[in-house]
Amino acid sequence: MPSSLHLQRINPTNSASALPSHQKQPLPIWLCPISPDTHPPENVHHLHTHAVRSNQCCSAAVQTIHAPLDTVWSVVRRFDQPQAYKHFLKSCHVIHGNGGVGTLREVRVVSGLPAGCSTERLEILDDERHVMSFSMVGGDHRLHNYRSVTTLHNATPFRDGETVVVESYVVDVPEENTKEETCAFVDTIVRCNLQSLAQIAENLPNKYQME
């Protein structure tokens, strides 16, 4: 059975764009782009609620993977090896920290994308709840103030062997782009990453059985 993926997008709309530049911007709107039928556990649902300003967009992707949760998590949690399933990245080097919260990595992007490199900080790594979050804090790219949260949970509480991955993000919209264009670009990357993750994780059990 092939893995399934769904995109869920929310773009905040308020009157901020109509305000003169000298006026104070309104407070961000707290939004959760996760559909209720996704059913993430209550103890991680709030992590997908982002503070979204008028110049930002927020979206999420949900991927069902036919592999045990621990298998999928073993790939996702490696902050030092995102290129293992994120094929838009060609290299990663840890430049500060030892893999815990606050660790900084520098990733290099494959040619053909409007970016060269990104400096990223690990914000959350929770092995018990299966939560990982990182933010982009520097580099040569257009995804300013990008922050993502990825959570994993069993597809059903009574059946092992199937994992649901939920990845949500918030990011600034570049001045020359619309919110729809920005989300479409980032959604494409997230979707490809999760589909690659599914392919790798679903093949790992077979690999172990062959060894």
Automatic annotation (TrEMBL):
It holds the Pfam family Polyketide_cyc2. One of its GO terms (cellular component) is cytoplasm. It comes from the Eukaryota. Keywords: Abscisic acid signaling pathway, Cytoplasm, Nucleus, Protein phosphatase inhibitor, Receptor. Gene3D superfamilies: 3.30.530.20. Residues 1-21 are annotated as: Disordered. GO terms for biological process: abscisic acid-activated signaling pathway. It is found in: Cytoplasm; Nucleus. GO terms for molecular function: protein phosphatase inhibitor activity. PANTHER family: ABSCISIC ACID RECEPTOR PYL4 (PTHR31213:SF119), OS08G0374000 PROTEIN-RELATED (PTHR31213). Belongs to the PYR/PYL/RCAR abscisic acid intracellular receptor family. This is Uncharacterized protein. It comes from Penstemon smallii. The lineage of its organism: Eukaryota, Viridiplantae, Streptophyta, Embryophyta, Tracheophyta.
